[in-house]
Amino acid sequence: MLDIKWIRDNPEDFDRGLARRGLAPLSGEILRLDKRWREAQTAVEQNQAARGKLGQEMVAAKAKGGEAAAALMRQMTESKEKQAFLEAEAAQLRDALDAALAPLPNLPAADVPDGRDSAANKLIREHGTPPKFAFKPLDHAALGEKLGQMDFDRAAKMSGARFVVLSGGLARLERALGQFMLDLHTKEFRYTEISPPLLVRDEAVFGTGQLPKFADDLFRTTTGLWLIPTAEVSLTNLVREEILDEAKLPLRYAALTPCFRSEAGAAGKDTRGMIRQHQFSKVELVSIAHPEVSDDEHEYLTGCAEEVLKRLGLAYRVMLLCTGDMGASARKTYDIEVWLPSQAAYREISSCSNCGDYQARRMQARFKAKDGKGTRFVHTLNGSGLAVGRALIAVMENGQRADGSIAVPEVLRNYMGGAEAIGGVR
Question: Half-sphere exposure (CA, 13 Å, Cβ side) for 151?
């Protein structure tokens, strides 16, 4: 949620920020609603003050007796009815203002490049060298099916498209990847492991910005709860409606969970294999930070996600997303893209975003300053550390051998019972 006071004070900057997101100017419409709400709120306060004065006059009149007390009593009754009307009107106007602000995206940071799509993203850095093969590399689906450990047909029979059944070594490799990532982030990078709910209420999904605009991308149960599209929802909402101690910031949370996405906006994209699934595992990183250090925290979080790929020995690059390619809740996002030999291209494996106070305002997540003077909204950050399924794909494709076996990265071998390969000699 954007700050209405900031919009009030900076209408031109607000419209420029919307224009960078490809949206028409809205300051006039928003500020007209805001003015009506503030006028209605003033009327509420003025009538309340008048009621207080009437009450004092009535006490004095009752002491004297006579008709004056009865007249004042009638005025009090009328004032009470008027107060209820004014409060209802002010509440309706506030709801209308909030409804106008709720679907608006976060405004991009100054250093985010302008652009309509991924073509305008900016390369920040590259790490590692893509492998060269003496044979034509297969994609992960062909590799998995050749091993007899990746089955899309059986998954489709029970669940439909965009599901997979993993078995044997690949199932264990997926589990190993998730455990390795979680151990790395909690033991070395000071994240606290969380096992959060996978089903959440409307207000939780609204808090992180998926509602109201992106409901079609989610799965909802018949009881009205939402399956989380990412553990970002659960982890960020841990501080919902909280007033935190400034001295304890940043709070860093990590979780390995299943994630569920309808992929409504991805029809026809990545239909083969595991790139885009309705159900997948992911290690999510969330930071709750002081506003003055959230940019530094963004770099730290991104570095933690990168370290996973470094230790797996995978080539990757980091891209700064442009305004048109960035998620709605983010003010700045780095995408980490891993090399996939079968596509001879880098593909996204993590998005690391600084959301500023956008989500915090929706969740009323604040901290109390050390000097005790009031509260401020925290800044929230999130990133994949990493998407486990896509990491599995990258390990398979980059580690494939001519005989169809797959080399297990050294850092995963303790999680794999010492195995150095899947489908080959131990």
Answer: 13
